[in-house]
Amino acid sequence: MARFIVIHTPNPEFTQDQLVESAREIWNVLEPGVHWLNSWSAGEINKLFCEWEAPDAEAIRRSLATVEHIISTDEIHSVVQVDPNLFK
Amino acid sequence: MPKFLSDEWIKALQVDINQSEPYAKAAERWEGDFYFIITPEGSMAERVLYYMDLWHGKCRDAYLVADEGEKEPVFRMTAPLSVWEKVVTKKLDVIQGLLTRQVKLKGNMAMIMRNVKAAQELVECCTHIETEFPE
How far is B5 from B10, CA to CA, in rounded Å? Predict the structure, then answer.
């Protein structure tokens, strides 16, 4: 399964309830084979960087469509993992 | 040793914040006042409110609130005593507390998320105060 980094810009006016409910809603609409693995918040630049596993980028876009008004999706990039231990 | 929920405690925190260079740097652009609301548990009879006026890396005012209506702060954070104890002793990261709604926020969440470092430095100041928590 392919890995993806998804970059989001949260709505700058969101409330705690909107953010948490949106994040919970994502779990209800995930398609088979689509997994939200991890997220990092870069609050100073109002961005979220999220790691996903999915068959393709469109499957992620469909899963995120319902929360687009709270956490808009800027970019989705296919990535490969690089283990730093390889360079020891 | 200041007791948590007392005016003495929040005044001690104000002094610590105003001596903290890391907080001053992290919060240099912050403008916004708070009610920190502690809901009752155990021996607490009623909820307790702390007011803090945080402005550009300094705490301009901090006190135990007698009348909730006397201020209209930009932010209100509410949690039970046991959750606040975990926050101020760094057993629970305040941002994780907000994201899991163990700490309820009224106000602009995005503004808090843009100032995570300031929130963490404020909690760091809390840990400098030897605190007696109620049973």
Answer: 8
CB B17 within 8 A of CB B63: no
Find chain A residues with C-beta within 8 A of B104's C-beta. Answer: 16
Question: Do A43 and B115 make contact, defined as CB atoms within 8 angstroms?
Answer: yes
Count of CB atoms situated within 10 Å of the CB of A7 = 15
The CATH code of the domain that includes A59 is 3.30.70.3090
- Domain span at A62: 2-81
Q: CB–CB of A19 and B115 under 8 A?
A: no
Fold of B7-127: Nonspecific Lipid-transfer Protein; Chain A (3.30.1050)
Verify whether the Cβ–Cβ distance A16 to B101 is below 8 Å.
yes
What pLDDT is stored for residue B4 in this prediction? 92
ipTM: 0.75
Confidence of residue B76 (pLDDT cuts 50, 70, 90): very high
In a domain, A87, yes or no: no
